[in-house]
Queue: 2 jobs
Job 1
Amino acid sequence: MPKRTDIQKILIIGSGPIVIGQACEFDYSGTQACKVLKQEGYKIILVNSNPATIMTDPEIADKTYIEPITVEMVEKIIAKERPDALLPTLGGQTALNTTIGLEQKGVLKKYKVETIGADIQAIKKGEDRQLFKLAMKKIGLDLPKSDRAYNLEEAIAVSEKIGFPLIIRPSFTMGGAGGSIAYNIEEFKVLAKRGLESSIISEILVEESVIGWKEFELEVMRDLKDNVVVICTIENFDPMGVHTGDSITVAPIQTLTNREYQLMRNAAIACIREIGVQTGGSNIQFAVHPETGRMVIIEMNPRVSRSSALSSKATGFPIAKIAAKLAVGYSLDEIPNDITRLTPACFEPAIDYCVVKIPRFTFEKFALAENTLGISMKSVGEAMAIGRTFKEALQKGLRALEIKKSGLESILFKDLEEGKIENEILDKIYRKLRQPNAERIFYIGDAFRAKLDIGLIQDLTKIDRWFLHNIQEIIDCERELLKHKHNLSGELLKKAKEYGFSDKQLAKLLSLSETEVYNLRISMNIVVDFKLVDTCAAEFKAHTPYFYSTYDQ
Amino acid sequence: MQAFLVLEDGKIFKGRSFGASGEALGEVVFNTSMTGYQEIITDPSYKGQIVMMTYPLIGNYGVNKEDAESRRPFLEGFVVKEYSKIASNWRKDQELGEYLKENNILGIEGIDTRRLALHIREQGSMKAVLSTLDFDENSLLEKAKTSRGLTGLDLVKEVTIPRKYVYTQIKDAKFKVVVLDCGVKYNILRELLRYKCNVTVLPAQATSQEILAVHPDGVLLSNGPGDPSAVEYVVKAVSGLIGRVPIFGICLGHQMLGLALGGATYKLKVGHHGANHPVKDLKTGKVYITSQNHGFCVDIDSLPKKDIQLTHVNLNDGTLEGMRHKKLPIFSVQFHPESAPGPQDAEYLFAEFTRLMRKSKKR
């Protein structure tokens, strides 16, 4: 299908202020969309209250309104500009909410503005928990079990049916009291009673807890011909219970077999179809029980999201740009892949590296905030690193956080060669592993330095053994380096570089200066290599210069 | 333990062994699928080949009994960037390295697989030797050069089953299907079972008379290794089936059908080995992401257009991906509708096969 010629003027809603949970990734996706639609000859009207964004630069849109993103204000803009279409899926949650508001007020109907990308029905189905649940049940997808209760007896009956641990969510609370978690019947009775009391209508939702389950995300795209492709798969290092925005995440998925992954892929495709996102990207999250493999769908975002920006950079596939093209009628097979030029965008990127995203926290700026992590997001940014191994990408990412760490360095130990570890320290490690927190990754490293068993660390953190094993390999390598600091072999130094140790990190371990480490490895012919991000794992020639550094030859 | 991979053009990759020890000869190909190494290792179509995975981290979830695609691995060797020493998955039965050792398959890790992939992409698939015994570069180069390669070689006879067997016998079966085993993947059999077919598997050497003697409602020509033009006996059997029974060809089966219908095949420079190849259904315009594994291809221009309709084409390079006979209930695809590994988007073709069988039965 060629692009639509029945629409000329498109209104794009930006993401507004940069807040925790909604940062510059929406500026990135919105800017991409504006640029590509302008190139296609459409007139772009942009509204964004945040002038400190790239998308509000004068050359990006044809007309830019720096005004509050409210239903009232956008209505005024629509009345004045009379756009043919509204593209709501690129500005994050703010844009979606505003669009729903406009629809409910009858503004879109009044001015004959068509929503492109995702229609109102799809947005509602994706966003409303109840509608989403019904839709997923309809297509046979498993969800966390749940039921409503209106008194304690009913609540107890539900708890017996589902089993512990359980999440208790009071409905319509005064002041929005949140959910709580009960691990046994005693706790449950207290919390359920409290929940019923806090609900205006004395109603609680009792839900199966999936805390500690493995968490996965798929970035999916669909076009008007109903072609659906998976752009990127993501596995969370931190299991369910930590907000995805606060989790260390890894692309692609590492610990699922093909059979399990294809089930998830099929489910994601069925989900985007059922929700009815006509064109563009969606982010779909799943949880998998680590011992039984039971897979449940958690949620879907019918829009470009934080993960889409990450997925674009992780794969080289420009999700927002392609989503914008799909919204105006192109199909995936009609759009060329920018990187290979000769192959179409209708494919699934194959990557030949590992991508790690690490959240960046600034608890030092919020003196009273606890640095523990849970279901509401606390990070203010993130670093993404690419490496040939998970170990390399992890250590590069930790450096990129700019928190004065040159890799997976110790947070507790000054002298790594010291033998005895005091009980006090061990207690602290246990505590820091059990309760997710901003520095947990460093405490995991220290747990291995303290020679704690991988099984114990897994029990405490619920983090998959594969990830933990990789961290153990980093610490083992560190130990080897310390042991052989006076008789360092080229082989060991090469391994350290492949494991992502920086020269600075090595300098500390080897009691050398950074320059000495550099000169040493140059003399051993251990030099940096730059590899290409090409969307196709070297199968086709790439034309875009997008490289990452690595030590692999 | 050390391991060397030496290509016929003299390129040497030095790594570590994580599988069996010994020496293996084969054509090096790369596979770009990011999951499914177990299915790849047990796919008989890799007979004669040393398979390199472009995804660098392999072994993460181990191997399990359910995901095997044949009775044992047939590939010659396995090449990865980093082998995971631990496997983490609730269905894991075994670590990958242990599995390779048990099955006497060589594995090498610690080499720059991207560099190898780029080299093959530029130079084409190449003969090679993988060794944990011989580290003399000249001697290895000689072995690689003089190895048998794939062209003109009948590898089907090395992977097919020795005698006929009945895969399934279900009570509510709707169709009786003969699968000609040129190196069939189990998931083809599983799919047929899902569509209520009683399946009899025949060795690749079966003649058309032997196949028809089973009185099948349809015949499935399976995937398999190597050069289709070297397997004349299968082409001959297929010629004898045309017009007598509905036929569905997959991968090598598609190529055999192409030859039997008067077409020709040729070897691709690199081949398609992966799980992300876009294929367009020319009738509906829809695009399917497919699983692929082939080094040879049916030449579009060689097919008699008066009988044959092209149905599928590869969007990456325009090569033929599927065809059907204009009058007879015969169709075939170059990709793998049974997936395993890879997307299950094209699974509808098994339904299409049953539709053809139903129609023929009515007549």
Job 2
Amino acid sequence: MHGTLGNLPAVTAALAPQRARRAVPWATLRMLALGLASIALFLLAWHLLTTHRVVAHVRFTNVPTPQAVLARAALAFRDPQFQMNLLISCRRIGSGFLLATALGVPLGMLMGRWRLVREAVLPALELLRPIPAIAWVPISIMLWPTNEESIVFITFLGSFFPILLNTLLGMQGVDPILVRAARCLGAREAALFREIYLPAVLPQVFTGLAVGMGVAWVSLIAAEMIAGQYGIGYFTWEAYSLVSYADIVLGMACIGALGLLSSALVRLAARLAMPWNRAA
Amino acid sequence: MNGAAHVAVRDFALDYGTGSQRMAAVQDLSLEVKPGEFVSLIGPSGCGKSTVLNALAGFMQPTRGLVQVDGAEIRGPSPDRGMVFQQYSLFPWMTVRQNVEFGLKMKGIGATERQRTARTLLSLAGVLAFENRYPDALSGGMKQRVGIVRALATGPRVLLMDEPFGALDSQTRAIMQSILLELWEASRISVLFVTHDIDEAIFLSDRIYVMTARPGRIKAELAVPLERPRTPDLAGSAGFLQLRSQLRELIREESLKAMGHEVGAVPADQRFGQDLAAVAPP
């Protein structure tokens, strides 16, 4: 959170010299000014509400001040235990998300290509899909021999469905003329998948990955809070139990920052994977 | 290039749909393209021109009759039969050159040779400067030039063209016709060209087949005795004008028939808008 704020003035400074010589980009300036004002206002409100311990039905009595959280953060980022919590959460997201991608994209493509596969697989998946990943926590703990595996499984489940369904949707939107053109040029089934269906479906795949990444974080944090040892979700919940209130907000801020970072990584991957796509 | 093929379609019929919805798109149609010949297939919209082409490409099986290339039955698509579509069909994720190289890559030809072939053809079509651009950056005419070049790159023995210039404005269309003829003169493969534009058919072809309204049959076959190479000023010559009025009359008859048939037999809500638009100008 703090890092993002700190970068904003740097961004403005970098943009300024190029833009100043052309017509003044009022819209851009206004957007930046309002953006900074909005964030400043939020911090100010937080500061005032907590230092004055406002109680108006909602109670700010125990909510830590921004300064208290900042002070905790300075300590925590040097603490190996805290670093490990962050690292472990990232590792869980990484494994669950990559697993979901590795299974969801090929399965979605096969289901999109062959009706028979779709008709055989989709009903069972539709039955499981409405169950939120969090509801899987108890069963997951029973299913998997280690706690670690069960948490990765929950994260996997959260991102698997959006990835699979978006891939399937993308397959149905592949322009049949492109497939015909490729077949006329001698492409057989394997080449069609590699050269036509895969690139054609990529924009939808990345939509699925972006949604899946969001759900993966939701599922991970819930799983860590309920079943975790270590992890940033576990850290946040434990802070509540241990009455270290500043740590609660620090945990929340870290979760937000990591979520933002992972979304940015997905967008970056999309841009690298689809150089022809101007929208990406 | 490994020579030109002989294309033969005999007593061809193709039905769409099943049961009571079954409808004959094409019936008892026979035509041929001799090796190295440029033949056009012209007729009112919805007469089944594209159906014939799709069967030759290998996308559809005839209900009855024979569809052959050099005496062999067509079983599916093959790079031996290049196809150019009406819709833009370049792969958006490949650069212009990668598009042209695609067929050669499928044949397992090495990168150096692929590149050489692609660049030669692209320069013949005047689009070499765009070899590293994505199709998105190209105009409609350029896209279609690349589409033709891509179909020619594998060295097909027949080129099947489905109203390839249908989406272009008339200026671009005229330029494209000249470019197509230049490319064709260089390879002299057999071409079957589907169009509903009379001038285009005359300008390009050695021979023209006129189709009837649905179900499509061959109504007439006309030779085009105009000498090559052909230039745009050909359009004013007596031979051209005479062929044009002859073809107009033939197609007008069929368009009216198609319209009358539709108005009489099909409920208003099931009529195809495109068929009404096909009525030939006076």
